[in-house]
Amino acid sequence: MAVQGKKIALYVIVVFVLYVVITDPAKAADYVQIGFEGISSAAKAVGHFMTWVADGAH
């Protein structure tokens, strides 16, 4: 039963994404840019943390 729920949730998400892309491509592009900026910021933060740890955490 849980697997079926996951499939339904995935289909709903896919339909919603397609709806947003088709009805307002500019807003969809903004969402993608925001997502990539978030991923980039997170990767930079991890990099700074690893550098701090490698330098002896001081």
Number of distinct helices? 2
Number of strands: 0
Percentage beta strand: under 5%
Order of helices and strands: HH
Mean pLDDT: 91
Oligomer: single chain
Helicity range: over 70%
Uncertain regions spanning at least 5 consecutive residues? none
What does this structure look like?
- The longest helix has 30 residues, at 25-54.
- α1 (2-23) crosses α2.
- Helix content is 90%, strand content 0%.
- The chain is mainly alpha-helical and 58 residues long.
- The protein has helices spanning 2-23, 25-54.
SSE arrangement:
Layout: H1 2-23, H2 25-54
Helix pairs in contact: 1-2
Provide key terms for this protein:
single chain; 58 residues; mainly alpha; 2 helices; 0% strand; elongated
Short description:
Helix content is 90%, strand content 0%. The protein is built from 2 helices and no strands.
